[in-house]
Structure formats: structure tokens, C-alpha cells
Amino acid sequence: MGAVVSCIKSALRTIGRTIMAILNGIASIIMAIVNGVVSFIGVIVGFLTCNTCGGRRKHGGRSHATTTGRSSRFGRRRHMGTARV
Known about the structure:
mainly alpha
């Protein structure tokens, strides 16, 4: 009798693990879609704001320290075709 109960218990455990694996896969797919949409919206916002949204500017991976306490937003802006030579 104990072998039958053990077999049923094992079968139910396997079914439960299969259902959890399916739900985990669905959740991963949904997360990938949401991350893709968020990244796409970030690209659109960056395009519309010339990547200056929030006052953050990219400097090629280098960090520029200021000793005067002024923000880096007051630097010279370089736009293609508008700078005088």
C-alpha cells in the first residue's frame, strides 16, 4: 500500500513541477517583452531629447570630476552644423 501512495505522490509532484516550469517560461517571455518595450521607449525618448534627458550626458565611459561644484550641464554644447568655425 505504501508503494502505491509513494507512486501517486511522485506523479503529483512531477505534474506540479511541470506546471511550475510552464508558468516560469511564460513569466520569462512576458518579462522579455516588457524589457523590450521599455528599451524601445527609452530609445525614442533619447532620440526626442538628443540623449540629454535628466541632465545626464555620456562622455565615452570617462568620468569628469568638477572642482568648482558646477554641474556638467553648463559645458559647451556641440551640435553638428551649428558651431561656428
